[in-house]
Amino acid sequence: MLILKLIFVLSVLIFVFFELGRIFRQMSWEKISTDLTQTDPRIIILLLIGGFIAISPMFVYDFVMVSFLPKKFSRKYILKSGLITNTFTNLLGFGGFIGATLRANFYSKGASKTDILGALSKIALFLLSGLSFCCWVILGLMASNVIEGSYSQYLIWIIGGGVYFPLVLLATFFKNHKLLNGLTLKREVTLTLGSILEWLAVSGFFLLIGRSLGVQQHLAEVFMLYIVATILGIVSMVPGGLGSFDVFMLLSLAPLGIDNSKVIIWLLFYRLFYYVIPFIVGLIFFIHGLGQKINRFLDGLPVSILRKLAHGVLTLLLYTAGILILLEAILPGFTFNNPFLLRFYPYTLFFLSQLTTILCGFMLLGLARGIESKISRAYWPTIVFLLIGMADTLRYGISDGLLGFLFVVLLLVVFSHSELYRQRFVYSTEKLVLDGGLFMLVFLLYAIIGAVNSPQYMLHHHVPEVLLFPSEKVWFSGFIGLILAAGVLLLTFSYLAAGPRQIERLLDLTRAKAIIKKYAGNETSHLVFLNDKLLYFYQSQGCDQLFFMYRRKANKIMIMGEPVGNRQFLPQAVSQLLKLADLENCQLVFYEINSELTLYLHELGFDFIKIGEEGLVDLEQFTLAGKKQRAQRAIMNRLARQGYHFEILQPPFTSEFLENLNQISDEWLNGQTEKGFSMGFFDIEYLNQAPIAVVKDQTNEVVAFASLMPVNQAILSIDLMRYRRDVADGTMDMIFIELFNYGKQQGYQYFNMGMAPLANVGKSRYSFLEEKAAHLIYEYGSHFYGFQGLRSFKDKYVTLWRPKYTAYRRRSSLLITMAQLTSVINHHEKVTAESKLRRIWLFNKI
Which residues have CB under 8 Å from 35's CB, separation 6+? Predict the structure, then answer.
């Protein structure tokens, strides 16, 4: 049977092929082309709408089919699936196999194979009921002489088609087959009416095409011929009756006096507006649905890649267009004498004057920077800018290529909309240097070009053709444009940067103290009392769990040390802070953090560099006894003989005492600037937060002091350690040894000696290049900072060295990041009480 079917279909196709060839050779293709080009656009719109109306009754099959199935589907889903199924079935056909396969795929969720096959069988039974009904209508028209003439040769097809509907009614009346279970009278009537509407709609649409082409007679005969041609197309089993239907209509409409060229257009419009265009729409929905499934299966990766690709291409196009516009304005001679650049100018924006060209060129670069940084506020200005460009292109008829280019860019902007999620623009140091340098270069170059175009210079010197300007007036207009462009850029970036802040600028020491008291501090938590850093609090169920200390520098948020608080919420807190910083177009930099947090951040896309080691002294093992500590015992004995003694003083301190310490601090600094951020500076409020260890001489005057820095119940540390110039050698050792004894008495397990910067960094041949460079600084930079001396001093006591790292976002410049960190450390800026209260009030208000 399969071989017989293939032979039959092949025979039909051969007949159709030769018959179409014979007909086409007799066609006047010039006349057909003329008639097509002269078709009223309103008719095209009418047929476009009519084609979709003609397929709309077919949605009935889908709504009835889902009523047979256990799962309910949304109306929107059924309409979308029905459009795909019916347009594919119309064009591809294959005896209903395509439609059955698609419906089984769309509605199989929650249903068994038996459910699907049963529903498909019931639907398939009624698909041709409407066509059979039309055959009975034709027989009635023939009996009433509405259809005139002798069409007896078609009676066999009309009667054969008409028999189908009574047979369906007879089969469903007895319902003696299990496939007909569930086929109620209501569903039968619905399917029958749906099929009748389908065939009346499509035949009516075919007649509408004829009327729009000027055929007003013999419409009943055309209706009959259409039904017969459709039956022949179904019998031929060729998808859509392609060929067999068309040959029959060409041969049958000619005796009615209809010109073959008009029939060709008629059939072309029918195929186009009923089959092809709806199929294209259905195909788009099908690809979209298939793409959504693939995207869900691959966890959204394909769409993400496409959007990022569109965003990258869009950014490149905007930058390229802006640069080309500026080249045209600044070097018109070079631009219009360069064949390579001229190829691109049909695809860039066009402006009427030098002034507007420069202004819009720089505005385009500003918007490109916003698009590149994924700022949502750049979306609508870019859309408006492109629409103005398209309007100017249409107004002045500049270039069809330009119009197409702008349309493509507009589509890329729309497609990339979801990529533009950040809420405010923040200039990074790298981009600020680049853009500022570019603007200054353009300004300088333009000024030089203006100078060489002056009459005085041209009188005595030869000016290359590429530097020539049409006139001084044009150059001067551009020069004014450059000055105004700076203002335009500032306004553009101010607009992009005006979005809301996600990370509030808070300094609430009360909340920070509560977290430290509840969850204990760490090696940097005491630095919060310097008031030179802002705080970000992470909350869970309305309760503070963690806080980060940070300072802003350009687009960097410099986080000092480990987060303080409940470490169970560390992953959630870091993730939330990352998300908020990303919305602000900022990058996080974590300074002086431990290995655990470094490895976690590495999983989140951070790079890292080792910046040194932190030394811990095990107080339980510390003792001055033994050969190793002989030198330290000698120091302590010598200082005791000289009258030096050690004391721990508790806050609050008197103003006279603090003034004395301030004098010692100034003498120790010797004119150098205090540092901040990662280390303490002399501040009365800060020093009153913890005890201070002092060394007094034989006259009971304080000659050295160290501010204690409580970490937690297990670790004690110090921050400021300063002394007079004429203090006896070994005073620092005395302070540390006495503090070790004090810490042991108070029950502390470790004493934190602080950082040894760059210690053991980059010593391996496999270390990062940046760490090897840091090792060179450690080895040979003693002139600027006593790296090795500090490590050597602490090594006398330290029993455990812990590495410390700086983590920064991957693909960001380490050199600039470290320079920004150095700038933050070297510039302490204490937050005033007024600003602190204002920020607390703002937080509470929000």
Answer: 261, 262, 265
3-state secondary structure of 564: strand
| Cβ-Cβ contacts under 8 Å for 533 (sequence gap 6 or more) | 507, 527, 549, 550, 551, 560, 677
Residue type, 598: T
Note whether 550 and 562 are within 8 A (CB): no
Question: If pLDDT is split at 50, 70 and 90, which confidence band does 23 have?
Answer: very low
Rg (CA), the chain: 42
| pLDDT value at residue 501 | 77
What number of residues does the chain have?
Answer: 846
Coil/strand/helix, residue 482 = helix
Tell whether omega for the bond before 652 is within 30 degrees of 0, i.e. cis: yes
Point out which residues pair with 565 in neighbouring strands: 546
Q: How confident is the model at residue 356 (pLDDT cuts 50, 70, 90)?
A: low
> Are 114 and 256 spatial neighbours (Cβ–Cβ below 8 Å)?
no
pLDDT score of 16 = 46
- Token digits for 488? 């335009």
815-817-820 Cα angle (round to 5): 110
Kindly report the average pLDDT of the chain as a whole number: 77
| Degrees to nearest 5, angle at CA 789 with 785 and 790 | 80
Whether 255 contacts 32, CB under 8 Å = no
* Amino acid of residue 739: L
Q: What is the pLDDT of residue 347?
A: 42
Q: Please report where in the chains the tokens 């569930």 appear, as a residue.
A: 182
Residue 734, judged by CB atoms within 10 A of its CB (0-12, 13-18, 19+), counts as buried
CA dihedral 88, 90, 93, 99 (to 10 degrees): 50
* Burial (CB count within 10 angstroms: exposed 0-12, middle 13-18, buried 19+), residue 591: buried
pLDDT at residue number 383: 85
Higher per-residue pLDDT: 595 or 177: 595
In 3D, which of 621, 554, 560, 536 has the Cα closest to residue 798?
621
**CA pair distance 693, 375, nearest whole angstrom:** 52
Query: pLDDT tens across 483-540, in order?
Result: 777 787 888 888 888 877 777 777 888 899 999 988 988 888 899 898 888 899 999 8
- Please tell me the distance from the alpha carbon of residue 241 to that of residue 236, in angstroms, as a whole number: 7
The alpha-helical segments, DSSP class H, found in 397-454 are 400-415, 429-452
User: What is the set of domains in the chain, with CATH numbers?
Assistant: 2-296 (no CATH), 303-420+438-496 (no CATH), 509-605+827-845 (3.40.630), 620-748 (3.40.630.30)
Cα 536 from Cα 578, distance rounded (Å): 12
Cα separation, 145 vs 536, whole angstroms: 90
pLDDT at 574 over 90: yes
User: What span, in angstroms and rounded, lies between the C-alpha atoms of 436 and 430?
Assistant: 10
The token pair at 20 is 């179409």
Q: Could you say which DSSP state residue 593 is in?
A: E
DSSP 800: E
Cβ atoms within 10 Å, residue 541: 5
Contacts of 428 (CB under 8 A, 6+ apart): 554, 555, 556, 587
pLDDT-above-70 percentage for the chain: 75
Q: Which residues contact 743 (CB under 8 A, 6 or more apart)?
A: 619, 716, 751
Q: What are the residues facing 648 on neighbouring strands?
A: 693
DSSP secondary structure of 357-370:
HHHHHHHHHHHHHH
Residue 105 makes CB contacts below 8 A (sequence gap 6+) with none
Segment 531-570, tens digit of pLDDT: 888 899 999 888 999 999 999 888 889 999 999 999 999 9
